[in-house]
Amino acid sequence: MSLLESLSLPDARRRLRASFSASDTPALVVLVVLTVGIVVAGLVAYEWVPTTTLVLPLIIGSLWLGPRTLPWFTVLVCLGVCVMLLAPEVNLNARSAVRTGTIFAVATIILFTSFRRSRLGVSGPRGESMFVDLRDRISRQGVLPELPDRWSVEAVVRSAGGTQFAGDFVVARRSVDDRLDVVLVDVSGKGVEAGSRSLFLSGAFNGIVSALPGEEFLPAANTYLMGQDWDEGFATAVHLHLDLATGDFELRKAGHPPAVWLHAGSGRWTVVASDGPVLGLIADADFECVRGRLAAGDGLMLFTDGLVETATRDISLGIDKLAGLGEGMLQRGFDGAAERTVSAITHTNDDRALIVVHRRW
């Protein structure tokens, strides 16, 4: 049986797409043919196909070709420009010199960009696919587990500038003994600048929270971050360890804003604060534990400073405003409350994240 016969049609299509996405050879062949065609057409009818037409394959090549093939293709286009100048209809004057100089300037910019991309080794669709994959990995690691009917948990993360990469991320895990661990982390920096560190730490913290008891998570995360030796290698975090059977919880934080506890019985809220240094700054740090029990109807909000602090507003005033919005959850319900709350707060030039845990009646 031949290889093609042994493969099903979907498998063949998948492998074909993979082979094309893994190499820019097909795109290079098409662009070379297009460039040669333009050069030939320019020699025959320069009035209709001037040298500036070669900017088209040059721009397409900068989008589709990798850093290894793009410089050679750029040189080919520049040679094509020189060949087209030999056309009988070409008048070598100031106008043609400006056109030619413009093309060479564009080629120089593309070459410079290609050399910068060579540090990463990918560009174009493959580079975009890589970043999309990184974004999806962060999202998957922050997926909240399914909870019993009497519990709900929602999380919303918004990055600075509306990008898909943020310095805030969520790690969540439900154990076999019906306990929930939720960690909200705020990495130093914001937006795309902190996206790479967020990806790195989200994977590491996900492994730590899955392997260690609740009281050991923040010390282990601090030790891990201390060993990275980053210039801005610090982060704040808040860790909730919740018993889904009884509602008992333990809250620990590391340089993070306090949590807000919404009491359904009284309709009021309290701040749940504990003491602990920022992760990655002090070795062998201690993190204070605050314990409590969520009664039926109660809610707990975990958030980052980008949600409550601005350049013109103190963090305590921001917490008061957030808690006021939280009181509305007790009246209108907790379904979709995290999204409504984040949308109701004025956008800041910082990443924002909110987690709402609710024990239903």
From TrEMBL:
Pfam families registered for this protein in UniProt: SpoIIE
The PPM-type phosphatase domain, residue ranges: 148-359
Keyword match Hydrolase: yes
Molecular function terms from GO: phosphatase activity
Domain of life, source organism: Bacteria
Keyword terms: Hydrolase, Membrane, Transmembrane, Transmembrane helix
Transmembrane segments: 27-49, 69-87, 96-115
InterPro entries: Bact_Sigma-Reg, PPM-type-like_dom_sf, PPM-type_phosphatase-like_dom
Statement: the UniProt record of this protein carries the keyword Oxidoreductase: no
PANTHER family cross-referenced by the UniProt entry: STAGE II SPORULATION PROTEIN E (PTHR43156:SF2), STAGE II SPORULATION PROTEIN E-RELATED (PTHR43156)
Record-given protein name: Stage II sporulation protein E
Species whose genome carries this gene: Nocardioides aurantiacus
